[in-house]
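Help: why these numbers?

___
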Amino acid sequence: MGFIFMKLSASSSSVSLSLMLLLVLVFSRTMAVVKLPPNVTIPALIVFGDSIMDTGNNNNLTTLVKCNFPPYGEDFKQQNPTGRFCNGKVPSDLIAEEIGVKELLPAYLDPRLQPSDLITGVCFASGGSGFDPATPKTVSVLSLSDQLELFKEYIGKLKRIVGEERTKFILANSIYLVVSGSDDIANTYFTLRFRQLQYDVPAYTNLMATKGSEFIKDIYELGARRIGIFSAPPIGCVPSQRTLGGGILRGCADKYNEAALLFNNKLSTKLESLRGDLPNSKLVYIDVYNPLLDIIVNPQNYGLKIVDKGCCGTGVIEVAVLCNRLDTTCSDVTDYVFWDSYHPTEKTYRSLVPTILQKYLNQFF
């Protein structure tokens, strides 16, 4: 994986390294934008899920679900395509910055990752993943099971850096976010359709919600306590799904949105049930369906104009390898809700993230 750890010959060296890393952490933390409750500490942000949150984990995987090439990242630092499915920062970064953890949330599989990066959290998300185990398998990306195994590896490394007790503190007090489900609905169920041979929509959304609930229990068993899980978005309104399922006028694909709403209802119910089963947990259901739909329906309220096309290429189908250096991009990305045919722009995320944090952050404490 490319991680470099110093070999320590004595316990005093271990203590010195831990102190040094903690000092680096203290002096490099970003000032929180949102106001935290008194005496509340968020030592790290840890993220699981799909391309909405992926900060580069797919870069070294053998998959077509990649974006570590132009024009991706054209508004990132030094126009650097890092593997974020966006023109700039993604919610992983923006949330880390807003809660004062750090400016950017690194991908766990980034070979340049430093030991000090682990202390304040990492991103395990992988573009193309889903709650349904078949979803990541079809595109050769990290499943949630794979991400869980990497999280276990992360915990072991954290113990070697800061010790057992500090690791327990970090695990118990960090915020965990799980963002998945869009690819299950849009790709596995409605586009590839092979799951339709096994499940109708109610049964498939049951599968998704059950797998989501199981994943929450898995990370709880490993020490996570403050866990937020995002709803599915209005996936039928993203440009590619308008193209594939919205008819000749490319309206929002109603079947996709209805499936998303059904899943969201089941996920919320599962979470409510889990709260009684997982002592000392703070489980937060985060609705992104309605805030994003409001941006799509009322873009002028957010300084946006174009909702049915992405900025990359024609904007109606290009995503991942189809959005590449051969494509032109729009003249003004700040007019667009979507960067490519599937993922929002940084400007859209900057409208969403503060709204979400203001509504839900206190529920973690």
Summary: The longest strand covers residues 45-49.
